[in-house]
Each structure stands twice: as structure tokens, then as C-alpha cells.
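Dear all,

This email documents one entry for the complex benchmark we are building for the journal club exercise. For each entry we list the sequence lines for every component of the assembly. Then comes the predicted three-dimensional structure of the complex as a C-alpha cell string, followed by one or two observations. Please use this as the template for your own entries, and keep the labels exactly as they appear.
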Amino acid sequence: MIKYFLLFVMLFASITNAQTFEIERVTGNVKFISGSDNQWKDLTQGMKITSNTIIATEVNSTVKLKVNDVLFTLKESSAIAVSNIKKMNVDELLLALAMENIINAPRKRNSDKSNNTAVYGTKITDPESIIEPSIEFGTKRLNGARQLAENGMKESAIITAMEVYRKYPETKTNAANRIYFGDLLFEKKLYEEAYDEYNDIKSLSLNNVQQQHVSDKLEEISKKLLNR
Amino acid sequence: MVYIVPLKAQSSFGIAGLWGISKKSFTSVNSFEFNPSNYSVIKDWAFSVSYGGELSKNFTSSLYQISAAKTIDDHFISLRYSPGFQKEFIFKSGEAVIINNEDPITLESRFQYRELFGAGYSYKLNPNLSAGFNVRFFEQNFTQENVTTIYSDTIYFVRETETESSDFGKADIGLVWKAVNNLAFSLSSSNLLTFQNEAANSSNEQFKLKNDRTALIGISYNPVEYMNLALIYETSNSFQGSINNFFNIGKNKIGFGITTFHDEEQSPFFAGIIPAAYFTSNLFDVSVSWLKYFSNRTSTGSFSDFSENGMSSIINNSYSFDKVLLTVNFKLNTKLEQRVKFLEVEILKNIYPSLAERYSSFPVAVARVVNISDEKLTVKPTMMINGINENPIQSPSVSIFPGDTVDINFFAIVPEDYSKANPEISYADFYLTTVSDEYDDKLQLAILVNGKNAWDGNVHNLKYFIRKDRNFTISYSKQILSNFKSKLDTVKNALSFFYKAKFIFNEYIKNMQYISDPRATAEYVQYPKETIDLKGGDCDDLSVCYSALLESVGIETALVDFKSGGDIRHVNVMFNTKLSPRQSNLITENDLKYFVRKNENGIDELWIPVETTTLTGFEDAWSTAAEKFQQDAINNLGLIKGDVEIIDVY
């Protein structure tokens, strides 16, 4: 019990510590959108932003952020929610993955919920309202997630990827990214989660190398799970 | 010279056999002999009659006893009239006289003993301990014929009959203790208190009924449900034992038993046996028993033996004959026999009239109930809350097997128009009913009925406030939307819900202000109409009202319960835009401002949080709520840690 209590205290402390991110350097076209905004603004050197901010870089653009004494550089054609730039441990990652599973589960229909289509039946399939650029932005967000991993924040990278898949479902069809983050799960020895992910990836259109990689990983995980 | 031999006869002898102390046993209402404590399992009234015959040289039959018994709560009273409990001895003196040249007349002595009636009373001190007493009255008649010489002018002889009656009474006490369900012990007296008249003729003293004091110790054991073993030992060194076994035939039972006994006054060691067969039903019992002595019984004997041994027991002595006895008991229940009873009732929650809709699905109390009958029962539980219900409300029936204990849920109905604003202590009556309209058991408990606006603090239950005032909220929302009809006609179809929610919010918050709850024992939540009429409320009130307004125009809503603040919790609203993630840019380029939820079909939909206490406009309320949700629910993992909960209203 005490162990769990301490775990939660540590978790709580690590996540909720008031974090202020300072923009050390900006190159090229970098924009940001804060928690209360609906539209992007230009990001400039020396600005201080809160964790509820997303920053995005265009081609040939980068931004260097500083949080406490840690520097993080977001490369070109990338986007990241600043709150995702954080160190997590495996326990925190497991909690976050569990939360993603809950969020991704279809809502249960209450038994007393109305079936009257006059109330809930409005079907919105207005083609003109489909905004394709969100796919591109989703890819940018995955790029940002990759850079988290490259900076040693692999747990945060995994969670960020999961969040991006949820908000930008089209990004789930990008096999290369899926394999990359699946490998991170494997690397963190989250074999059951990795197994599910590789199984899902198997249904995408993969090239030969990707197919072989996924098959090898599935086989390897199966052996590991059997030997547990 | 006549000697009274100090033998002590068996006094606990049951003429129809020995019956143990068991719920399953044949009803014993006529057995003061082996049941001085007057213990009984009779529920209400019982009447018993025994008719039998003595298998002597000349078969004689007679009515042995008639008895009546009545149980009143924990009291049990029985009365017995016993005309057949009698014994008469006639001795020829050997002297004869001839009077007036007629045939010689042989002089006789007659000794007649009769038990007339008895009465018993017992009281159940607790379910396992019963104590009682009985009193019995006897009559003794001693008649001797003599020839008296009369001296006058001539000497002549007169035959005279000298008769003396002597009443005899005795009282005994006893108690029965059921140590466990299938084992009972009894302890009682015999001849504890006796009284009888002094014999006018001193020579009759020796023929009076003996009244030696003894104690009876009994044990009754049921190794299996329908088998009983019983033993009664008397300190006079007599005893009797029996085994009885029942079998079910439908709802009735048949049984067989055998009793044997040892009496210090009789031989052989086991003086005889009493096999018996019986049938028992809810209304009556019938038994046929046969008393068989192992020693030869003759109808003649010597006076000297009689003089020496005296008389201890009228129905069982050295001169008793074999008997066959038919006993019938009638059982009349004028009141309902209790079949189930409450062990305890726990009120799960005080009554919140605001949750009226919930009470049809969730019990307000749970009772532990035991089936104390011998059969499987269907129990109808009902409850009535004083001041709320005019008639008992029936909860789902429950089947209970004999002897089983189950938990039974009690559901309440609270009228939706309950209007009392203040809490009050009321009483809830709980009833258990089985076979008739009369209840088997009733229990009353105090229950707190809160005022109409009271809320139990569970955010899940705010939906009951949201669902109230439906007609008002529909009318109010539609009025707002009709004011914005031209604008709504121009927006993209996909954004219909988003803009409806936005317009309703902006109109609804006009002149609205944040007002804290009044101080009260329970939390206070306003119904939507009250919030609009009062032009304000706290986060609960404002969230309930906004959610109700959106729901009334077909926009799905959820309450977001923020619990991480400890005692200070917060609630706001989230609504379904029905937009897909690919349509997110229609409302915002900031993916931190919406939340993707899968509907029941697995399709992703964008939900927008709205802080209903931010009364400066929809955009501010959305941004404030989004930031809080992102921080508390997502960044701090509140959704998995239980600090944040999304509660769908429908």
C-alpha cells in the first residue's frame, strides 16, 4: 500500500510541478497555439510558454526549448505538445497506456438511453467539412514524438504517439511510424502491449522488410511470453 | 402386619410412548407424565383425544383423555381431562355371611384410583429455554364391606359398606433447554408438591397413592432432521427411551417409533415396549400405539401383595394390562403462523427525493431474512415510508428454502412531485408476507427524508436533476435557438450541435451569477428551472442547468467530476459536437481543446468541455474547461487515477 502511495505521490509531483518552458532559439517558421487559443501564432525567441501549448515547426525550421536545465530541440516539420516533454518511468507509462485504453474503449450505451433518432440521430457526413490538413499535422505530431524518444524520453514518446493516433486516426496507417513506436514498447519490455501493436500493424500494407520485422517481433514476443 | 415396601415407581411413563423435544415431533399435548414442564411446539390451538382398550381377560375400552391446549405468544396453557386413567381393585375377604337363609354373601374390599384432570402452564423465556409447571388431581375411593352384629330382642347381622374418599393432588415444575438446534435437555420434578386428605380410617393410609419425590432428567437428540432419540431418567432409578423416525409424504409426514422402559417396581428389567405409528399433517395428527408388557399380566392377585406394594402409578403398575391406544390431535391455527422473520434491516441510504427515478433500480434497504418454516417459501417484501407512501410498495419476491437466510432488497417509490424543502425524520415500515395478506413479520426503522433539493454528493446522481423540468428546458432552449435561427441556417450542417451549444450557453449565462450553496447538512442542487429563475447557482447548479438545456435539444452531454481537490470538488460539462477528428479544424486548430471519445459503435467523436462557472462567454468557458481538463485529466493521468471522471447523462 505504502509503495503504491509513494508511487502516486512521485507521479503526482513529477507531472504537476509547475513547468515553464523558455524559448531559447527559433530558426525559420515556428508557431505555437496555447490552451485557450484556436489559432496559431508566431513563436519568437525568449518567449515563455506554459505546458498547455503546442508548438509546430515548418520545413527548415527548428526551435530549442529549455525547461529547468534541460534543453530540447524540435526539428523541422514537427509538432509537440509541450506538456509531453517530460521524463516518465515505466510505471507511469503503464498507467498512461491504461488510460489510453479506457479512452479508446467505445462508450457503453446506457440501458435507459433514448433510441429516438429525433434526439440523437443526426448523422453528420458533410463531405465539405472534412479537413484533410489534419493528417499532415498528425504526422508532424508523430515526428515530435519521435524526437522525444531520441532525447531519451521514450515513455513520453510512446504516450504522445498513442494520443496522436487517437486525435488523428489517419496517422495510424503510417506503418513506419507504427513500427517505430511498437519497437519502443518492445524495448521497454512491455511485451503484451507490443504484441497487440504488432498484430494491429500486420493488417496495414507493409513492404517486405516491414513484414519480416513485424513477424520476427511477434515470434520473439511469443517466445518471451511463453517463457514467463 | 402390613408392610409398605419403599419401592418407587416410574412416574414419567407415557401411555402412548415417549416423544422427544423436537419441532418435527408428534404434538404432545396430553403428556404431563413425561413432560412436567408443559413444553410444547403447538402454534395456536390444539385438541387431543385418546381412546383405547385394555387387553385383559375381558377386553374393555374407554375414553382415556381429552385435552385442549393454547399458545398465546410465549405462553402455553394446557388442560386435560382423563377419565380413562383409572385403576380399580376388588378383593374378596374370604368371609361370607348368610342372611335370611339366602345364598352366602362374600364380603368385598374395593380400591379405586382415578386421575381426574390436570392443567399445565409454560413460558418460553427465550427461543431456547422454556420453563413451566403442571398440577394434577386424583380421586381415591376405598370401600370395605363388613358384617355387623346387631343385638336387640334377637341377634341379627347387617352387611355394612364403609366408604372413604380421599382427594390427591400434586404439582411439578420443569424446564427445557435447547442447547443447539438438534439437542435439548429437560429437568423436572415428580411429586414436588402433593396434598391429600388424611384418611379417616387409618387402615386406608397404606392404600393411598404414593407421593415419593423424584427428579426427571431428559435428553432429546435429532441425529438427522426427522429422527429423534429420547431418554428420560428418574432418580428413582427408572428410565425410558425411545426412537422415532418420520418420513415426508408430500406436505404430510408418517412416522414410526418405539419406546421401552424400566420400572423399579416391575420386572423384567425392561418391563415392556410401546411401538407406535403415526400420521401428522398441518391440521391433525393420528397415532396408534400398543403398550406391551413383557411379564404375564393376570386379572387376579393376592391382597397381601397389593397391601405390601401399594399404588404409585395409576396407568403403569404391576397390575396394568397391555393396551392399545388411538390418539388424535387437532391443530387449529386461528392466527397466521409466522414463516419468515427479519434478522436485521439495514437502511443503505437516506431518502433523497431528487433521486426518485433511481429508487426503482437501487434498493434503499436490505434485510436479512430467515425462513423458519419447513417448506420453500416465496416471500413478498414491502415497505412504506411514512409521509411519502400511502400504501406499501412491493419489492421483487424472493424464494427461500427452509431454514435458509437470505438478503432481500427493499425498493421505494418517491413521488416526483415531492415538495418538502426541509429534511425530516420519518419512519419506514418493512413487511414480509408469504401465504396470505397478513404479514409474517414487520419492522420499523427511522429514516431521514431529505428536502427536494438535497443531493447525496455523487455526481452520477446529478443526472436526476438534469432530467427534471424537461418541458421547461425544451421550451427554454427552443426559444433561444429560434432567436438564432437565421445564424444557424447559415452554419455548416456538421457544426449544428457546436453552434447550438454555443448560442444556448451565451444566452443562458446572461444575468447569471455564481452563488454558493446555502449551508445545509446535505448538498443542495437546484433544478434547471430554479437556476434560471434565481439567475444563478454554484458549479453543480450551473452544470445541471446547461446540461439539461443541451439535452433538451438532442445534444449529448456528460458531467466531468474533478475530485483531486479533496473536499472541494468541481463539476463542469462536456458535450458531443458529433464532429469527427478529421473535422476538428472546423472549430479549432488546437487539439488540446477537444477530447476524442468513441461512441457505442466505436466511431470517434469530438467532445468539448465547458466551464459553466465562467460566465463571460462560450469561448472563455471552453478554453478554461479545456485547460483544466487537459491538465487534470490527461497530463496528470486523472482519468486513470480516478481524480477525474466523465459521467454520461444518458
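Observations: Residues 1-8 of chain B have pLDDT under 50 and may be disordered. Chain B touches chain A through 49 residues (CB under 8 Å).
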